[in-house]
Amino acid sequence: MSEALMPLYARAQIEVERGEGVWLEARDGRRFLDCVAGIATCALGHAHPVLIEALTAQAHKLWHVSNIFRIPGQEELADKLTAATFADYAYFANSGTEAVEAALKIARRYHFAKGQPERIDVIGFAGSFHGRTYGAINASGNPTYLEGFGPRLPGYQQLSIDDMPAIAAAIASPTTAAVIVEPVQGEGGARALDGQTLRELRRLTREHGVLLIFDEVQSGMGRTGKLFAHQWFPGAEPDIMAIAKALGGGFPIGAVLATREAASGMAAGMHGTTFGGNPLAMAVALAVFDVIAQDAALAHVAAMSQRFFHGFGALAARFPDQVVEQRGKGLLMGLKLHANNREVMALAREHGLLVAGGGDNCIRLLPSLLITDSEVDEALARLEATFADARAKGWGKVDAAPVVAAA
Ligand code: PLP
Predict the structure, then answer these.
(1) d(Cα 98, Cα 169) in Å, to the nearest integer?
(2) CA pair distance 349, 91, nearest whole angstrom
(3) Quick one: what percent of the chain has pLDDT higher than 70?
(4) How far, in Å, is the centroid of ligand 1 from the Cα of 314?
(5) Alpha helices in 92-146 (DSSP H)
(6) Buried b (16+ CB within 10 A) or exposed e, 347-369
């Protein structure tokens, strides 16, 4: 194993060679049912033929020209994203954290252009995750990401999403610029906010001239059974939204969507990127969009989610010593565990199942949106085998195990 990679990841010892649909194959021949999907990114599974065709056709034409020129795919994708959402504008970047960074800049610049440069404060929430660039770690609700990276940037605070009076007071402050929130917290442990909370954030921010930013990097692009998670709650539309991950189906891309008003402080030269919105990313993202944005595809997500949650209910009843609770929305699903989630993830790998970790001692399941009935059942069966194994090892909350009659 090479020593040359900076040791920034606690990687699982699987050398993945190829993928197809929900299946991954390692170099040593092991096959895994993939409920990580590149962390909610390979929304159409691995090696989807439509995406291979879109990428290779574009690769034969043009890879990169920079944003000095018009890139037709950008205009087409911007038209589709804005037609499907609250937004008037799209800006393309390369990743989720870049999309968040741009969203934060757009929000501060809005107030600056309105003659209120003192409005710089961004309210975020405990347990949130917005990426790893400097602005994004300051906006995120996890202090460990900040440790050792110099002083906290001014103008960021995190509150509890359950403390609406404190949130209301912070939004009313004359120095507040924006609120940033994930409609479904991903890394924090698949925590879905309800419509009442999102609508209340919308109402309060509008009342005080504060911009509302949704981070749908993980929850967006069909993952919850709507194109974007907040669309479950009419009336809870943001001013600005960061998206990425599934937008490119595995090809790097990020985007910010914004209303004309929210983006009114931005003009040529105020933000930009060399690679963002390049022809390859646009070709793939357009192909992804055309598959996911179909009613039938979104209905399929809802149906597969129901099947999973039905299975989770049965597992929670059979394994109260392992499962604390089930959470999430659509196919952004989490199980809070009694035993250490990292150890259970490793055990699941031994049963040929890949799941992601999450805050609050959760494991997360974020499979391809095209997962089938039988693949859901297979994932549940492997999860059941994992929990049975965990119980046999004495993991979990021992006194919560159902009493088994002696033979
Ligand atoms: N925002 C959310 C909600 C995320 O889940 C992530 C990544 O997990 C990011 C932002 C950062 O995205 P990226 O890793 O593409 O920079």
Answers:
(1) 29
(2) 38
(3) 98
(4) 31
(5) 96-113, 134-139
(6) bbbebbbbbbbbbbbbbbbbbbb
Given this model, what pLDDT does residue 406 score?
46
User: Which residue is closest in CA terms to ligand 1's atom 12?
Assistant: 96
Tell the residue nearest (CA) to atom 7 of ligand 1: 131
Query: In whole angstroms, what is the distance from residue 73 CA to residue 294 CA?
Result: 20
More confidently predicted of 76 and 405: 76
**Alpha-carbon distance 19 to 393, whole Å?**
31
CA R_g for the chain: 22
Ligand 1 centroid to residue 251 C-alpha, Å:
14
Atom of ligand 1 nearest to the CA of 97: 16
Between the CA of 19 and the centroid of ligand 1 the distance, in Å, is 23
Question: pTM of the entire structure?
Answer: 0.97
- Ligand 1 centroid vs 161 CA: distance in angstroms? 19
| CA 180 to centroid of ligand 1, rounded, Å | 13
Closest by CA position to 246, among listed 221, 214, 280, 215: 221
- Euclidean distance between CA atoms 33 and 17, whole angstroms: 14
Cα distance between residue 352 and residue 221, in whole Å = 27
Q: Which atom of ligand 1 is nearest to the CA of 185?
A: 3
pLDDT tens-digit readout, 60-76: 999 999 999 999 899 99
Torsion of CA 286, 288, 291, 292, to 10 degrees: -110
* Ligand 1 mutation pick, 98, 129, 185, 224, max ligand atoms within 8 A of CB: 129
Q: Are 312 and 320 in contact (CB under 8 A)?
A: no
> Angle CA(121)–CA(122)–CA(128) in degrees, nearest 5?
155
